[in-house]
Amino acid sequence: MRLLPAALFACCALLLAPHCAEAAKARHFKWEVGNMFWSPDCEEKVLIGINGQFPGPTIRAKAGDTIVVELKNGLHTEGVVIHWHGIRQIGTPWADGTAAISQCAIQPEETFTYRFVVDKPGTYFYHGHYGMQRAAGLYGSLIVDVADGEEEPFKYDGEINLLLSDWYHESIYNQMVGLSSSPMRWIGEPQSLLINGRGQFNCSLAAAHTPGTKQCTAGGNKHCAPVILPVQPNKTYRLRISSTTSLASLNLAIGNHKLTVVEADGNYVEPFVVDDMDIYSGDSYSVLLTTDQDPSSNYWISVGVRGRNPKTAPALALLNYRYNRGFNLPAVAPPVTPLWNDTAHSKNFTYRILARAGTPPPPATSDRRIELLNTQNKMDGHVKWSINNVSLVLPATPYLGSLKMGLKTALTAARPADTFGRAYDVTRPPTNPNTTTGDNVYVLRHNTTVDVVLQNANALAHNVSEVHPWHLHGHDFWVLGYGEGAYKGDAADAARLNLVNPPLRNTAVIFPYGWTALRFVADNPGVWAFHCHIEPHLHMGMGVIFAEAIDRVGKVPREAVSCGATATALMNGDHL
Questions:
Q1: What are the pLDDT digits (tens) for 147-192?
Q2: Per-residue pLDDT for 253 more than 80?
C-alpha cells in the first residue's frame, strides 16, 4: 500500500498521466436515499436506506478508480449528504460529504453527483454526515482492492465483510431534541448491536448459556435473520471490519480462533495476533482468520460493548464450517467481552498497532502544535461538549464556498486557541463549567507539519472521563503516542512519542484521563472536519475545522456550495 504525496497524486488525477491512470476505471452508481420501514433487530422502525436497502449497497473498486455516485435525496423534509470515510479526497474537497463544511445539504428531490478517486486500497465505509443520519441507518461499506498488477503483503483464500453498528428504537429526531433540551435528555444505551445490519433484541441466540434469556428463532423476518458466515476448513480468510456506531465502542471475538491484525484504516500494520480486538466508532481493520478448528462444529462471533457500562446485549453471529447446518449452534458459550472499564486491555491492543515496514515515517519535527482539551460544559442550561472551551456550531454557508470566495462573514474575528491553560485539572470536573460557541476553524499553512494533541478530561460528573474516537477528514495522520494525565509537552512526554514506526490512521482514540499525540502534513487543500466520531458528541459541539490552502483549491462545482451567503454572491456575479 504505497502512499503518494498529495501533490503528486493530485497531478496524476488531473492530468491522467499514463502510469497513474493505467487500468483505472470509472465506476458509476445511481442511488436514492429514502425513509423506509425496517426491522434490524426484529422490532419494526423507520430508518434511512439507499435504493430500498439497509445497510446501503457495498461499493467495490480498485485503487486509482474513479467513483461516481449520482445521489438523489428522496427524504421528504430534510437534506442529506454522504461522507466517504477514510477517502482523502485529494483534489476533490467538495466531494467529502460534510454538510456546512464541504458542501450544501442536498435538498429533497434534488440530485448531487459525487465524483472522486479512491487513491489507495483498504477497508473503508460511507455514512450520512448531516444531523445524526448515520444513527438512522445511512451507511454502507466501501472496499478498495489493490490496483491491477499490485499485491497485498499477505495471502488469504477468501473475504468476509463485517459492518458493525448500534441501533436505537427512538428516532434520531427525538434524540436530537433531547440532546438540545434544557435539561438535557441523554439518548441512553442502544437497544441492540448489529452485524451487517442485523441483530437481536429481547432474545439471544445463546440463551442456553444465558439464564433468564429467551431463545431467538432462526426463521421469520429476513431483516433480522441471524448472520451466518460460511467458511471452508483449513483456509485463511480476510475479515474486513468497520464500525459505524453512533455511541458504542465495541469488542469482537470469535470462539476458539485467533485473529491476526494486518490493516488499520486503509494502512498496513505489522501483523500481530490477538484473541479479541477493540473497535471504536470510525475504525476499520483487516484481520486474518485461519479455519483450523474442529470442522464438525460452528463457532460464535461475539460483539460486545466496551468503554461504557453495557446495558446492551452482545451481538452474535455464526462462523459456519461447511458442511455443517448453518444454524447448528455451538455447544459452548460465546466468548465473554472484557469488562467495560478494563482500559488496560484496550490499551494493550491499541499500543500494539504499529506501521508495517515500508510505511513512510513522519517528519522528524513539526511546524505547529495544536493542543485540544476535550471537556463537557454548560451553556444557558444546555449541556455541551467543547474544545478549548468552545463548542462547535456549523454555519449556514459551507466553509469551502465562503472561504474560497473570500466572504467577510466566513469566519469570526477571533481565532481558536492553539492550547489551553496548563493549570487546568483534567482529573476533576471543570471549576467553571460555562462555555461558549464558535466556528473552531484553524487555518493551516500549506505543506506545514502539524502536531495535534488530544487531551481528555473529567466530564461534568465526578469520576467520569469518557472514551473519544477522533476522526480526521482529508488526511491520514501518524499516531505518535499516548500518555496518562495532563499533557505537559516536556521531555518526559516527548520520550513517549514514536517517530520510528507509528501507525498511519484516520481515526484515533483518547482514553479516559489521557492524551493522544498525532502528526500530519497539511498537503491537501480544502476544508476538513476533525471531530469525535460519537454521533451525539459531535451534535453537542465536539469538533474543529482545519482550513488548508484554500487559494490552491481548484474550481468548486457551483452545485456543491450554492446555498447561504455563497448563493447570494454567485447570483451577484462572483466566481468560485
A1: 999 999 999 999 999 999 999 999 999 999 999 999 999 999 999 9
A2: yes
For residue range 342-383, what is the model confidence (pLDDT) as tens digits? 999 999 999 999 999 999 999 999 999 999 999 999 999 999
For 390-443, the pLDDT digits (tens) are 999 999 999 999 999 888 777 877 789 999 998 999 999 999 999 999 999 999
| Exposure on the CB side of residue 19, measured as CA atoms within 13 A | 4
DSSP code at position 134: G
Whether 11 has a pLDDT exceeding 50, the answer reads no
Give the total residue count for the chain.
576
Query: Which 3 state secondary structure label does DSSP give 471?
Result: strand
CB 530 within 8 A of CB 470: yes
d(CA 506, CA 124) in angstroms, rounded, equals: 11
Q: 543-548 and 441-444 as β-strands: parallel, antiparallel, unpaired?
A: parallel
Cell (9 digits) for 338: 472484557
Taking the C-alpha atoms of residue 571 and residue 575, their distance in angstroms, rounded to an integer, is 10
Whether the CB-CB separation of 356 and 269 falls below 8 Å is answered with: yes
CA torsion sign for 249, 254, 258, 263 is: negative
Mean pLDDT of the chain, nearest integer: 93
CA-to-CA distance for 468 and 544, rounded, in angstroms? 14
Strand locations in 406-525, DSSP E? Answer: 436-438, 441-444, 449-455, 468-472, 477-484, 504-505, 507-510, 514-521
Q: 454 by DSSP, 3-state: which?
A: strand
429 CB-contact burial (10 Å; exposed 0-12 / middle 13-18 / buried 19+) = middle
Can you give the pLDDT at residue 565?
A: 76
Among 266, 486, 487, which residue's Cα sits nearest to residue 369?
487
Confidence of residue 83 (pLDDT cuts 50, 70, 90): very high
- Write the single-letter amino acid at 338: P
Q: Above 80 in pLDDT, residue 1?
A: no
Q: Is 151 helix (H, G, I), strand (E, B) or coil?
A: coil
Residues 6+ apart with CB under 8 A from 143: 58, 59, 60, 61, 123, 124, 161, 240
Cβ atoms of 352 and 264 closer than 8 Å: no
- Give the burial string for 490-517 (b: 16+ CB within 10 Å, else e): eeebeeebbeeebbbbbbbbbbbbbbbb
Share of the chain above pLDDT 70, in %: 94
CB 242 within 8 A of CB 124: yes
β-strand 449-455 against 504-505: which pairing, if any? unpaired
Contact 246, 179 (CB under 8 A): no
